[in-house]
Queue: 2 jobs
Job 1
Amino acid sequence: SELPKEVSYVAQSGFLFDGTVRDNITLGEDFDDGEIAIAIKLAGAEGFISSLPDGLDTELGERGTTLSGGQRQRLSLARALVRKPRLLILDDATSAVDPSVEAQILRSLKSAELPSTIVIVAYRPSSIRLADEVVYLARNRILGHGTHHELLEALEGYRLLVQAYEREAKRLEQEAS
């Protein structure tokens, strides 16, 4: 019964409820405005929340369909952070945000004084580079662990995967322009 209080999980497609931004962050628990503000800032959500008609008191509607995918992800992250979990699991939880916004969020999390161990499932090399330790999985096995640079040097499969991702990102960027 104690585990849910100690662990927060943020999935790629976070669910939002019919209610206000504040309701979706607190889920009815008692957090003061300062705690909510810190969580929102760490999640990189303060800019878009402040631009909403009623800020924290803006009604979102079912599933938060008026928000972008990245905004929904950042609210889900703020919901997890306000609880100050001992273990925070981010399962591709910033995939819908711009890579520069994602990097800023991850840097904020890294420098914040959180009581949390953070486990990130990530695919973007920019996200992986920020990790203290990377665990490389393939074919349901751990094939290596270390820093991003150590794995690039030591594991051809890891290096090829990173290069393939970077080529695809460059191709998509060229198509968009």
Job 2
Amino acid sequence: MAETFSTRGLKALFNYPFRHAGWERKLLILVLLCGAGIFIPILPWLPAAGYMAEIMRRAASGEDEPDLPEWDDWGALFVDGLRLGGAGLVGYLPLILVIGCGFSTYFGSIFATIASTDSYSSDFPPFMALGMLVFFTTMCCGMALGLATAIPLPAALTHVTVTRSFAAIFRVGEWWKIFRANVGGFVIGAAMIWAISFALQFVTNLLVSTLVLCIVAFIAPLVIT
């Protein structure tokens, strides 16, 4: 029988990072890695993603209450992070291709317009019209595709993490059963993430607009993420 979503346990999911001793140090390391990833491409994000993967694996096992693991096996964290990141890239590859097609066509139309005319005229250049049409079409398709991807993808990524197999992302039949067992839960989970992201973006914009709180605007997203 398929499970139905319940709000039971949501409080525990929100406060579990702060229940055990040493959580400050564990989260600080995670924040520092996420922050370092802004200046050093990819490398610091791999152990951070691996740390998330370990949390996912513990939560999926259902044996114990979720908690923050120790930072004691950096090699495993790098491998888990690489596996999780690669699987996420595969999951979002169709979206990346669609968005990439839109941007490449748009900028290509600009270069084509410049190359085909000596000066701008009052007539709207046909290359620009085509480029903008393709761009807006791909953006609309990208929004729909992003929505369709973001909801079931956590089931796929969790399956990859639990099985410790990158190839599990391609075994759609296995993780699709997990998704179908609690579709409502995945939908509400995605909605919660989007709501928090929009709220965070709003607060960050407010902080950036003030001179004194600009540094807070940089740190807060790392902590909340």
